[in-house]
Design brief:
heterodimer; A: alpha+beta
């Protein structure tokens, strides 16, 4: 380490150590910031996983929802029920305040039957979904229409 | 020593996050595959057809074509010697179209059906997918559901094996 000044006057050793100390403090500070950042990322990821699990649980609840299902069969929806159920009924049975999140439910008949467009329905709570921080769970269900069994997607999205 | 302990803490947090994400992803895919299998076992197609040995169109009327039964019927007819080309534009294309729409973007799928005639020893196979083969080494979160179906209604003895695979693209 070069001397900061020259002369016959004595210089205390501590003053020569200051630049080294500053470098060590900065390095340690950066390391601590990395540690805090790792912890924050971990917490965020845990929250993300929890919300993903909630979306799957909510989707499973919709698969057995009496207002949709035929004879309470899981994953088998009755076409007339799907068309007749109201947003108010769903919101009353799945209250966003009780659940702790808002949601959108989409039933999408993909069967190719001529009347399949009738059974493409969507239900959503009043709060619009954000661009990010929403979680989607997807399932496959059947929509029964007369003697036909239409394949359909069930897409559930939740957000806070 | 402090730096070493802090480094270990960072490593533990990072690895736990990664492992949890992997487990959830695999469980989710398995659930989705099982639910899709149940839907396919019950669903019917609007209308579909195949060409018989004379080249005539044999049509399945609306609502009577269950996907599982179509696969068994095709296996039985393949076993009788009808070429697979006779099914490609009817049965197989309609099944593929249905699963394409059901599974949707972001996911890949394959249906594999096979039957071995125990008397003749001849095996017949059906493969329906957007890809040429299921590459288990590279497909992310590949989940598979397999089941056996008796060939009795298709006029054959024994069982066919049907496998549904779904993965993230």
């Amino acid at each position: 380490m070069p001397r900061l000044s020259r002369g016959n006057e004595g210089v205390g050793g501590f003053f020569e150590d200051i630049p080294t100390l500053i470098v060590v403090i900065i390095g340690f500070g950066i390391f601590l910031l990395s540690l805090v950042n790792a912890f924050v990322v971990y917490q965020t990821q845990q929250e993300s996983f929890r919300m993903h699990q909630e979306s799957v649980q909510f989707m499973e609840a919709i698969r057995v929802y009496d207002e949709f299902t035929y004879n309470s069969l899981e994953g088998v929806f009755f076409g007339n029920k799907v068309l007749q159920v109201s947003d108010d009924t769903i919101e009353s049975d799945f209250n966003p305040e009780t659940l702790g999140y808002d949601y959108r439910i989409i039933i999408n008949d993909v069967s190719g039957y001529p009347d399949s467009d009738l059974y493409k329905v969507s239900f959503q709570t009043s709060s619009p979904p954000p661009e990010r921080s929403k979680y989607t769970a997807v399932s496959s269900v059947i929509v029964m229409v007369d003697e036909q069994y239409h394949t359909a997607q069930l897409i559930v999205t939740i957000w806070k | 020593m402090v730096m070493l302990v802090a480094s270990m803490i960072i490593f533990i947090y990072s690895s736990q996050t990664f492992q949890t994400q992997e487990v959830i992803s695999r469980e989710d895919m398995m659930r989705y595959t099982e639910e899709t299998r149940e839907a396919l076992l019950q669903s019917t197609l609007y209308e579909t057809w195949y060409l018989d040995i004379h080249g005539d169109k044999i049509t399945k009327p609306s609502g009577s074509a269950n996907i599982n039964e179509l696969l068994l019927e095709e296996l039985a007819l393949l076993d009788d010697g009808l070429p697979r080309e006779n099914f490609e534009e009817g049965y197989e294309q309609d099944i593929q179209r249905t699963i394409d729409r059901l599974v949707g973007a972001g996911y890949g799928y394959a249906i594999e059906a096979s039957y071995t005639n125990k008397s003749s020893g001849i095996s017949c196979d059906i493969f329906i997918s957007r890809v040429d083969s299921v590459d288990e080494a590279t497909n992310r979160d590949l989940a598979t559901s397999q089941w056996s179906s008796p060939m009795l209604n298709a006029g054959k003895s024994g069982e066919a094996t049907i496998k549904l695979s779904i993965w993230r693209e």
